[in-house]
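Take a specimen:
=====
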Amino acid sequence: MCMIIPKIIWNFSGSCNNDCWYCHSTFRNYPYYKTTEEYLHVIDLIQNHGQRSLIPKMNWKFKGGEPLQFTNFNILLKQIKTKDSHITIETSGGNSWFDILEVSGNVDELILTHHYWQNETVLDYLIDFMQEQDKKIKVFVPMLPDKINECRAIVQGLKDRGVEAIEQLLLNEQGGSIEKYSLRDLNIYYRRPEDWTPPPPAPPVPRDPNLPDPVWVDPRIDDGAPVYTGKPCWAGVDYMHIDVKGWARGSDCNGRNLGNVFEPEWLPPDSSFACPMMFCRSNNDKRNIRINQN
């Protein structure tokens, strides 16, 4: 078994009951929790099945929805910590001290979203705790319509305390900014003059109908992407993403079918397989998946 540090990214919950008005509907409808025993079984397989037991350390990242809303979440974290592990949680931090206090000792990195309605003393506690423990904390602050400058001041205050803080533009489900933003809001966010207006669009350039469509690209053309066909690929070992319902994948290309982690006979891969893809065009795969070049 090669010495690797796998990354497991688990969208543990597709649901959050905080009911923030700007949250996408996709995070409101799928709690889909399994039993504690089922989660513990999957964790045990990922950590100990076959040659995976020889892996010296694993990086785990839990996302939501809101993972803290699972009652026995800390039991799962304790199980992970029976082996050398780095645990990251993306969370809002909860509504009270009790939501985060139970798990904080088993978390190595917190990625927080600090919402307008939250008790700031909870955020202060988390910052102090993580900094005292020399653990990493990153805070996203949603930039509210009509309150861009106020939200920016919160971000700056966090930075002054040595916290990595990020202004989070609110996006719709298509990836654009939400309609509640005024042009003035967006101008402030992008640090343009508040009265800036976009210039009129350039007139379209006439296209010669005798020339090929410039948008179309022949998929058979070698675009310079690396060719790994037949080489040993560690997808599913180096990297594994698990969605809310348990479907796992090890790469964007899905060259290796990992199935559903909650199926009775499911086993995680513990060795490489021959890459079946002609080209590797995913930057995410090239960044996360190790291909043996020998």
